[in-house]
Amino acid sequence: MKIMAGRRGGRRNAGGRGNINLTQAELNALINERVEEVLAAREAARNQNLLNQGDEPFSYSPCIIITCFQFNTFNRYLTQLYSLHIPGANPNPPLCTFKMFLDCKPHSFSGTEGAVGLLRWIEKAESAFAMSNCRNEDRVKFAAGTFEGAALTWWNANVQNQGLDAANALPWDDFKRMLNREYCPRGEVQKLETEFWNHKMIGSEVEAYTARSYELANLCWKWQPHPSNI
Fold first, then answer.
1. In the chain, how many domains are there?
2. Is 196 exposed, middle or buried (0-12, 13-18, 19+ CB in 10 A)?
3. pLDDT in tens, 148-187
């Protein structure tokens, strides 16, 4: 015998799949509610000796008929809705591709931008990594895909020396140190450090002074010599 179970709101009030928003607690409560309704209806029917009479379904509420198969399908449907509409709920986000990385608009790098340009390129690349869920093992490969001109020539020379797989397998921090050695000469960094220590506000340009102070502090900290570079 099929059991009729109540369903709040119905499809017409759901507003479409895109407008269904459930928290984990709400999802669990909804599933538990449906289970309890089905079990309660079955128990009530058993008590009234209706399960073996067989012709008419037991009317628990005037909505939809749920068999065991339908209930399992409904359960899976709710779980899928939860994974689609609750931020961060999907345990298996799509694998980041190079196109997805480029869609986050990382900067290109040609090697002529100096220390400031390199820092900004790295910061933008790391922001794109975060937005695209880029895997650690793909970071160097994707970032090198934005090289142009002299930087591309430099990277191709490294690939020839190390092999493509070994070059792409470099840890991101090691890759940044390579760029530091190549495109941030110590003399340029020292000039930035001198500017930082002597930086003063001119007139009432508070915003410009603050922005440049932050930039210089960030540069001088990031380009401190690493033990492996000395």
1. 3
2. middle
3. 999 999 999 999 999 999 999 999 999 999 998 898 877 7
Indicate if 192 and 223 belong to the same structural domain: yes
CB of 116 closer than 8 Å to CB of 219: yes
Together in a domain, 177 and 190: no
Distance CA 195, CA 21 (A): 52
Range of the domain at 226: 186-230
Q: Please say whether the beta carbons of 134 and 101 come within 8 A.
A: yes
pTM value > 0.70: no
Side-chain half-sphere CA neighbours of 106 within 13 A: 29
Rounded to whole angstroms, how far apart are CA atoms 68 and 66? 7
Residues 110 and 44 placed together within one structural domain of the fold: no
Cα–Cα dist 155/176, whole Å: 12
